[in-house]
Amino acid sequence: MGSANKTGSAARKARIEEMRRTEQVRERRNRFLVIGGSVVAVVALVAGGVFVVKSQSGDDKDTAADGKAASGHFVTGADGVKTWKGTLGRTHVSKTVTYPTEPPVGGDHNQVWMNCDGEVYTKALDNMNAVHSLEHGAVWVTYNSKASKADVDALAAKVEKTPYTLMSPDDAQADPIMLTAWGHQRTVTGASDANVDAFFEKFVQGEQTPEPGAACTGGLPQ
Questions:
Q1: E strand or H helix at 180, and its extent?
Q2: Which of 113, 75, 81 is nearest to 210 (CA)?
Q3: What is the pLDDT of residue 22?
Q4: pTM to 2 decimals?
Q5: CB–CB of 171/198 below 8 Å?
Q6: 1 and 44 inside one domain
Q7: Domain check: are 81 and 49 in the same one?
Q8: Looking at residue 42, what DSSP letter applies?
Q9: Which residues are listed as membrane-spanning (predicted)?
């Protein structure tokens, strides 16, 4: 059993690293496209034309209306993980979304994601950007003022070495330390809680991911 777990972990790590490499190639290609597009734009403007660019990832829908956050409720499994049963919107919206949970586990969100390539933020995030990171398969570690500094430091060290994760303070959440993925959430007692590793193993780019392999860089740094 131990050997099987190690094999599974190694396979997952290899898959995430491959996604990371693919993402870097995509970013380089996009930079070349931006440069090329800028040249074309200048030429078009000189010629009296109009150059319009619209680009974004995945399910691009930008609307001025308030977003539908989610409808449904949590069901807690035997492993302590709460799973959202119901609907989680995935539309890109420009106005504020009010989520039924804190931190949110999904729903309509901003078209720009928070960078989540092992990012540790020291200030609270805009939920609408963080939810987009969850859509890309990230695990979001949050903590409030009741969490110990030792636990926060240890969790930060874990996040920093784990692709497709991010961490930030959230004084609005009920428990000291919480872990969130798209449609899933749990509370842990501290950094040494075995459920931290279990949650990362299952949900970092896990089966719940709406857009597996989507970028965790190229978004907002804070």
A1: strand 177-181
A2: 113
A3: 60
A4: 0.76
A5: no
A6: yes
A7: no
A8: H
A9: 32-53
